[in-house]
Write a structure and sequence with these properties.
single chain, 459 residues, Growth Hormone, Chain: A, 15 helices, globular
Length: 459
């Protein structure tokens, strides 16, 4: 196997405008995803009167397909350019979204054919999200200065949420009065615009340097003779990468387990109406945005002066999220007299701080260890995150059902208290794992310098 070159050209360093441009790609990705995971879900359940488990299974399927994320990141590592992979992934995602809308319409007259088409369409959606999302984060990690990574992570994620909100508002108006043909037309327009935005946002990012000179292509000969399985095994042997993978899984499992139970909790225990529970979700998302912005501002202020800031902040975010969930568990026991909205807002702030710090840590650690493996590492962590998200919502809802059966349906509040407490414990485990990642990083800093191209030694 050929060793890495002793010298490789420095990648372009993005300014704030460049970070926003990459954020536009994430906005485009979010615009398509919200249509496929939310709008189509509602159409299948309400307009077509299909079981809710059907769209749930399709969404779970698209998460399962994202186990391929390491492969797409590795492909860009070998190719030396991430732009074609991001654009190709976005085009695949767009095609899958339009096909999913068409398959949903087909379910009205030919359910079996429509279901088969939906399975294929959500496969394409999973591939598209994996290929574009993985390499977008890897590009951001490679081209962003260390002092800006916390803020860059916040900007990109806030812009993705903006994509959710913008698409939900505009597309929601365009879909009325609802018809299946209108659903396909709106999905097609949003998907085409998303691809166009992606192409223009990425134009020249990997081609030009700040001084206007065109840099040579990033050398990939260090891994050109290593197949995917060997490359993935090399990354997995890095203690830091392996521990961070486990941290991502546990923390994102705890993060997503609350998604499907918070609004039912407000309705069953506090007597909230559907409108009130929806507004409660808005309170939580407002807290998430504030937590993200707070982390970005503090991270930018700290800059390079404190190594490992984002991992320590991720640890603190996990602990704060655990505390907020314990507060919600107490609120479930106390009942309607408990200040629910402030408790949910606090959970949102803690979740937002944790999420940005975790993504910022991904961006920082993606370049650690052996060179030219950023995409493979980011793909590994993205796959771990996708599996956790796919399992989290299901396990959270299933746990409430199971505990309600154990304690009897009359003890609903106790069931929610137990589940919220269990999620809080999961966040504490994630905090402990984050500390272990930091210790691995510190140990690696004490090791003697290794020859170029060598990875971190296995434990």
């Amino acid at each position: 196997m050929t060793s890495a070159p002793a010298f490789a050209p420095a990648p372009t360093t993005l300014g704030w405008l460049g970070v926003v441009r990459l954020g536009l790609v994430q906005t485009a990705l979010g615009a398509i995803v919200i249509l496929t995971t939310s709008t189509l879900n509602r159409v299948m359940v309400v307009e077509l009167a299909l079981p809710a488990m059907l769209p749930g299974a399709l969404v779970g399927w698209h998460y399962a397909v994202q186990l391929s994320r390491p492969r797409w990141g590795y492909g860009a590592d070998v190719n030396g350019s991430r732009t074609p992979w991001i654009i190709g992934g976005m085009a695949t995602l767009a095609a899958g979204a339009v096909a999913a809308a068409g398959a949903t319409a087909l379910m009205q007259s030919a359910p079996l054919y429509g279901l088969f088409g939906a399975v294929l369409a959500f496969f394409a959606i999973g591939v598209g999200v994996g290929a574009s999302g993985t390499n977008l984060l890897a590009m951001l990690a490679t081209h962003t200065a260390p002092a800006r990574k916390a803020a860059a992570a916040a900007i990109v994620w806030i812009m993705m949420i903006f994509g959710f909100v913008l698409t939900a508002g505009i597309a929601g108006q365009m879909l009325d009065p609802f018809t299946m043909s209108r659903l396909i037309a709106v999905t097609s327009v949003v998907s085409i615009l998303a691809v166009i935005v992606t192409v223009f946002a990425l134009w020249g990012v990997e081609r030009t340097r700040p001084d206007g000179d065109a840099p040579p292509r990033r050398r990939a000969d260090a891994i050109s003779h290593t197949d995917f399985k060997a490359a993935l095994a090399e990354v997995w042997r890095e203690p830091q990468a392996r521990r961070f993978t486990v941290f991502v899984f546990v923390s994102m499992l705890a993060y997503s387990a609350q998604d499907l139970i918070l609004e039912p909790f407000a309705g069953l225990v506090y007597g909230y109406t559907p409108g009130q529970s929806t507004s409660l979700a808005g309170v939580q998302n407002g807290g998430v945005l504030i937590g993200m912005i707070l982390t970005a501002v503090i991270g930018s202020a700290v800059g390079k002066s404190r190594a490992g800031f984002m991992r320590r902040w991720a640890t603190g975010g996990c602990i704060a999220s655990a505390a907020a969930l314990m507060v919600l568990a107490a609120g479930a026991v106390v009942g309607p007299s408990w200040p629910l909205k402030p408790s949910v807002f606090a959970l949102g702030v803690a979740n937002g701080a944790f999420a940005v710090a975790a993504i910022g840590s991904m961006m920082t650690l993606a370049s650690a260890g052996r060179s030219s493996r950023e995409g493979t590492r980011m793909g590994l962590w993205g796959a771990s995150q996708a599996v956790a998200f796919g399992l989290g919502g299901f396990l959270g809802a299933a746990a409430v059902d199971a505990t309600r059966q154990i304690f009897a349906l009359s003890e609903t509040s106790l069931a929610f208290a137990v589940v919220f407490g269990a999620e809080g414990l999961a966040f504490l485990v994630a905090a402990w794992l984050a500390v272990r990642v930091g210790r691995t990083d510190a140990d690696a800093m004490k090791l003697p310098a290794m020859p170029a191209g060598e990875g971190l030694p296995a434990e």
